[in-house]
């Protein structure tokens, strides 16, 4: 059975994409720590980051770094948080989010899906796409 991320990547479930290439996608999480919280996910469905090929691992982190720069700029954050947790979905993903303090690295403080404002989620995706110079599907322009 495909992971929820594979279903998002394949267009079976909606996603607010901010980046996409042949190896990696980046889209907003539905339960953000702050608006602008992005998941960087390999297209290849792999459970553990330690099982990725060096090529995919390198591209995943290059995209995470670029998204991190965009997150800092778009949300005037002092840092871009980076976390690999990997227990909620068996498909490796890196969390990148705007942050100003260590206390924000706490998933128990994440907004529930029904607590997020769809307009603010759309705005967050638009801000990131503008900086990353990608279209609505995350493809580079």
Automatic annotation (TrEMBL):
- How would you classify this enzyme at the top EC level? transferase
Q: Where is this motif: Histidine triad motif?
A: 91-95
Q: Name one Pfam family in it.
A: HIT
Q: What is its EC number?
A: 2.1.1.-
Q: rRNA processing: is it a keyword of this entry?
A: no
Query: Which sequence ranges form a coiled-coil region, renumbered to this chain?
Result: none
Gene Ontology MF term list:
methyltransferase activity
User: What keyword terms does UniProt attach to this protein?
Assistant: Methyltransferase, Transferase
Q: Keyword Transferase, does the record have it?
A: yes
Its domain of life reads Bacteria
The UniProt record lists the HIT domain at 4-107
One GO BP on record is:
methylation
Concerning PANTHER family, the annotation shows: ADENOSINE 5'-MONOPHOSPHORAMIDASE HNT1, HIT FAMILY PROTEIN 1
By what name is this protein known?
Answer: HIT family protein
What organism is this sequence from?
Corynebacterium nasicanis
């Amino acid at each position: 059975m495909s992971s929820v991320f594979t279903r998002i990547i394949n267009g079976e479930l909606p996603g607010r994409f901010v980046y996409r290439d042949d190896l990696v996608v980046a889209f907003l999480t539905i339960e953000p720590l702050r608006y602008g919280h992005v998941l960087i996910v390999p297209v290849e469905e792999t459970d553990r980051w330690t099982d990725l090929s060096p090529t995919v691992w390198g591209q995943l982190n290059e995209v995470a770094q670029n998204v991190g720069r965009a997150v800092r700029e778009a949300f005037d954050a002092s840092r871009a948080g980076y976390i690999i947790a990997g227990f909620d979905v068996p498909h490796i993903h890196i969390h990148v989010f705007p942050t100003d303090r260590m206390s924000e690295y706490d998933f128990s403080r994440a907004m529930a899906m029904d607590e997020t404002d769809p307009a603010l989620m759309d705005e967050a995706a638009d801000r990131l796409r503008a900086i990353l110079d990608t279209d609505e599907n995350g493809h580079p322009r």
